[in-house]
Amino acid sequence: MSSRRAARMTNAVPPAGTAVFVIGMRVTRPWRVRAWLPVMAAMPKMLIHLRRRPEAGMLDARLYMGRSLMVLSYWRSADDLRRFASDPGAPHLPVWRWFNRELADTDSVGIWHETYVVGKHESISSGMAPQGLARAVGWCPVGAGTATAAGRLARSRPDVDRVVSVNDTANPSDSPE
Fold first, then answer.
1. Least confident of 20-34, 51-65, 83-97
2. Domain boundary pick from 102, 117, 132
3. In terms of pLDDT, which residue wins out, 73 or 4?
4. Residue span of the structural domain in which 68 resides
5. Most buried in the list 45, 51, 71, 97, measured by CB within 10 Å?
């Protein structure tokens, strides 16, 4: 393990307006494959579309799969997220319309989402590549003022300047899953 990944890290202060979007689905009737498979298959296509178009505003995303599927994503802004969701040329809107027409009132598959605009926050990772917010907006070593959760929360105020010791040479997309 490289020393960079072995050190305790915290996220850089995200730019104002950074948004966190969590979306998930749960298969409630596993035998109704024709109902839930198109919903499940749509998400990776959307993520590929967004990763190929950084101008759309998604900073990073992770897909978690099991009986429930969940995507944790980070965006430049909630407005960027809304633009993507309503863009007729992007893969979300046609799937959303199909879901509402065909499945919204059935009990085969359920979907949910939450959107947060980052304000007070704190994060830490140790012994692994940066995850979550640190992977999306950059990371820096834990040090003076960031050694405790209280210190990291205090520095998350919007009026605090961006941490200058962010590892600008490391690209979060280079880190392993």
1. 20-34
2. 117
3. 73
4. 19-117
5. 71
